[in-house]
User: What shape does this take?
Amino acid sequence: MSLRVRLALLYTAIMGGTLLLFGAAVYITVSISLTNQLDRMLEYVARDIIAQTKASTPGPIQIDFSTIDLSPDLLVQVWGPNQELLAYSYNLPGYLQTSLDPEGLRSGKSIFRNTVVADDELRVLSVPLVISGSNRVIAVLQAAVLREPIGATQRVLVFVLSIGTLIAMVVAGFAGWYSTNQVLEPLEVVTETATQITRADDLSRRIMYQGPPEDEVGQLIQAFNQTLERLENLFNTQRRFLADVGHELRTPLTVIKGNIDLMRRMNCTDDESMDSINNEVDRLTRMVGDLLLLAQAETGNMPLASKTVELDTLMLEVLQQMRVLAKDRLILKIEEIDQVLVCGDEDRLKQVLVNLIGNAIKYTPAGGEIILSLAKVDNRARLSVSDSGPGIPAEDLPHIFERFYRGEKSRTRSKDGKGFGLGLSIAYWIVRSHGGQIDVANREPTGTVFTIWLPLMEGKCMEDKTGPLK
Ligand code: ADP
Assistant: This one.
């Protein structure tokens, strides 16, 4: 059964149930109120008759109904102590032979009862007539009236309430169906789009929603679109990754195979070919190592030491090392250096610095400069690497820490064969695993600034801890 039908039925049932209860309450209240009215009227009549006939005074009872002004629908009988009929009203002679309420006659107290006499439903009040001053019952007065008007009102009430309930149930059913349709319509679009996406394998599609974005459906669609965006990014990254890995693997493998073929043809091992093979194998090993490290980092299993690291010494060490790489092509200098201690894995932190400075050297044209700085800011260490290169295009900035992401220019331009688009992701994960943060921004007028924030060492480090720090 569809959700629409279930909701429409639920609305109908709730409306029906509520109106049924309401109808029952109205029916009972109206019936009680009408019966009360009859009872008040009978009481009034009985009191009036007793007063007019002075029936509660000593002596034989003498009531002449021809002298009493009675409403035509009222029937009155007066019964003696031996159940003999002493007097009666003449308006309903068919009832003369029997008591209007035999049980009321015997009850010995004032009582209202419903009775049926000669197929007529009556409301009867029986009142014992007692001589004032004594408790002796000398007669019982019974006053009755037809209950037909109440019955008629009750029948009309039942009819009106039933029809009203039925109409309200039908209306509630339609209203439920309509409103559920309105709510579910956008969800159908979601289902349709999701099916189309699956069929056409097209993650670039998004779901359009005309309603307010802050309502429940709007939020659902927003979440769905965000999921699609994320999936699209993941698939694109994966496609890029496959293309990149394929490309990166083919080049060294072709070189290795070429050199082996050459040596086989020449029937001797040649040093130059061996060196080339060695270099390519190194490159492949590095790439596989990077991939493994990233896989470990992303699953939270990157092995990390936790020792005291002097960041200033580390920075100077890396600077010396990288100056060899920059040769005279670029100026590498330190702008500011504080003595800073952090807890962490020295080799991994060095790897981050080598990656950042290596990138700066790779992307900055000859004659440019690379500036390093290390300072304490509040309770954190701030380490920055800034270059005067071309900067990173705004569209690449949000993605450069993603795995295998390489700026378009770097992809086409990088001929040194060293970059896989993994360096910054590894740097990101290492810094994160140290409880820190890495940011990137473009520098004015040109260039890039990478800033690393790390928590300063407090007390002692948990020496030789293996596994993720945080
Ligand atoms: P790659 O191996 O391509 O250098 P990275 O992960 O180290 O991979 O860097 C990702 C991308 O970020 C690079 O392809 C490049 O487009 C961009 N990038 C990183 N550092 C710099 C920099 N200093 N100047 C300009 N672009 C940079």
Remarks:
- The first strand starts at residue 74 and ends at 79.
- Residues 148-200 form the longest helix (53 residues).
- The chain has three domains: 3-154, 216-298, 305-466.
- Residues 464-470 have pLDDT under 50 and may be disordered.
